[in-house]
């Protein structure tokens, strides 16, 4: 079993004992999403830590989008609940890249690929995605690359 999944299970027990409802609900949801991912496909398998991080990143993004939707609909209480869950999930994710760090990685990838112009965005993304995996959202990375390649 992955170390991250073990940590989630240990934290689940701790949050039950502490009666921390938000943390308990969020960790249960995360473990359910991981279990669904493990049994998806032709045969069940154990997820690696990297795959668990991908699942948690996806769940955190869902919480952020739901929060924005609730806030836009004037439902502040539900929006805050989603933000609270997202904060719990982010404790298990690698630290996000700052704009400066992301910009430096984009510059390195552009130099490595020799890309020029917006049509070469795919080449740069192919080099960049493994370097930023789990540390920056795909849309944010694409926006940085597009800004760098657009004259």
From TrEMBL:
Entry's transmembrane regions: none
Name of the protein in question: GatB/YqeY domain-containing protein
Organism of this sequence: Microbispora corallina
